[in-house]
Amino acid sequence: MEILTALLVVAAVGLIAGILLAIASHFFAVPENETVKKVRECLPGANCGACGFAGCDSYAEAVAEGKAEANLCIPGGPDVAGQLSEILGVEVNVGTPKVAYVNCSGDCSAVAQKAVYDGLQSCKAASMIYGGPFACKFGCIGLGDCVAECPVGAISVKDTLARIDPRVCIACGKCVKTCPKGVISLVGEDVVVAVACSNKEKGAVARKNCMNACIGCKKCEKVCPNDAIKVVDNLAVIDYDKCHDCGECAKVCPTGRLKIVDMKNGVIG
Questions:
Q1: Residue 122 sits in a domain of what CATH number?
Q2: If pLDDT is split at 50, 70 and 90, which confidence band does 92 have?
């Protein structure tokens, strides 16, 4: 009888607690923002942080509340921006889709090695010791910090040089932020010519340290019909707003550091 009484008491307490919780949930419920829900359903769910927010949920809330632009989802690109435009009833400025590109060609066959690194397998750690093991202080170290950071597996390291598959890349920018040498940048998916070097030393020194270095000869600058390319600090720099994709600069580049690329088909030079 005592056991039965105890069971009845526990059941009664549970029933009363359940009723109280149901009443509390009814009166204290926070109304769900339907706009947030619709926006969130459009987002790819990568939670990459490229938009500047902690994740897709945070970004969806900010967009729905008018605290963020609707074109910040880089992985979603124009498609997501267009959907958000319809949901919010506003015009969204959609830019060109981007991909990450390695501005370096210094693989192990080209770059001179100045030391043997036997420490923590991290580009950041290696770069803190005299700038890294290679003679070129501007180039890729190739220990894979970017590989570990990429959320979609678009990056690999071959012959001590990071390689990015633009067909897989979602342009979240995490690799750009994590590279201690700054050799990774985001470029438009439709670019035709890209600079595969980051060395800013004078030609003779640059070539001594890496056989694949830009020598700042300015041949590209002279041949460009649109004044879209300049040699700045001994390195070719392309202004893509002026570039008309003629490819003339790549044709005259004596070191081949100006690469003809086709990002959509995975051709990176």
A1: 3.30.70.20
A2: confident
Enter the DSSP assignment of 31.
P
Q: Is residue 47 packed enough to be buried (19+ CB in 10 Å), middle (13-18) or exposed (0-12)?
A: middle
Residue 188 and residue 119 share a domain: yes
Closest CA to 248 of 192, 198, 207: 192
Six-digit token pair at 68?
């963020």
Name 151's Cβ contacts closer than 8 Å, sequence gap at least 6: 46, 47, 48, 170, 172, 174
Structural domain including 49 reads 34-88
Kindly state whether residue 167 falls inside one of the protein's structural domains: yes
Residues 139 and 223 in one domain: yes
In a domain, 16, yes or no: no
What pLDDT is recorded for position 52? 84
Tokens linked to 158? 């071959």
- Yes or no: say if 191 and 131 are a contact pair by the CB < 8 Å rule: no
CA distance 1 to 188: 78
Is the Cβ–Cβ distance between 82 and 176 less than 8 Å? no
Report the distance separating Cα 223 and Cα 172, nearest Å: 34
Residue 82's closest CA among 67, 97, 96, 71?
71
**pTM across the whole model:** 0.79
Each residue of 48-88: pLDDT tens digit? 888 889 889 999 999 998 898 888 888 888 889 889 989 98
Task: Judge if 58 and 144 occupy the same domain.
Answer: no
In this structure, are 47 and 176 located in the same domain?
no
Number of separate domains in the chain: 2
